[in-house]
Amino acid sequence: MDVRSRKLLIAVGLGILLNPLNSSMIAVAIARLQQEYRLDFTEVSWIIFSFYIASAIAQPVMGKASDMFGRKKIFLAGLVVSFFSSLLAPLSPSFGWLIAARVVQSIGTSMMIAVGMAIVRIHVTEKQATALSVLSVFFVGRLGDRPFCGRRAAGAMGLASAFLSSIFRSWRRASCWPGVRFPTTVRGRQATASRLLENG
Predict the structure, then answer these.
(1) Which residue ranges form the domains of the chain, and what is each CATH number?
(2) Exposure check for the chain: N or C terminus, fewer CB within 10 A?
(3) pLDDT tens digits for range 150-178
């Protein structure tokens, strides 16, 4: 597998991380949301339900859209949508606006999941099974630490930080697109993925 294919795989993998990370990282802030908006548990739970429902609907739709408008365009558009929705979420004047921002955030991250596999299957022609396995590692890599990250962010810097953290991650994924130099913050994950590819 050449260097360009590895960079493409890592860039796509880092983008895919945004969906599982944002899906339940906010779950640890449920109690604070209840206090902030004075809601019962059923009502505040929609902050999580809305993300999953929107994601389930958006992924097949965005897959079809990528066939019509191009996979790279949809993937990069997903980064932009995720960036701005994460910026708007903490500025929401009411819980309804917060839910709307979460839905938009879900659509943005779903764009990257929907086309990520297709991008890798088309452009990575060598060791495809290994490449898809690496994508799976990226996808499930946040299952263990996303609640921890959400708790630390919300506890240390306030509730808004749980949403604003996605802004930095969106920029970080965009800067990893092939042809762009990897920033220092992602070199560790780049090295890990590179080792997996070499061993495959």
Answers:
(1) 3-199 (1.20.1250.20)
(2) C
(3) 445 444 445 555 555 455 454 444 445 44
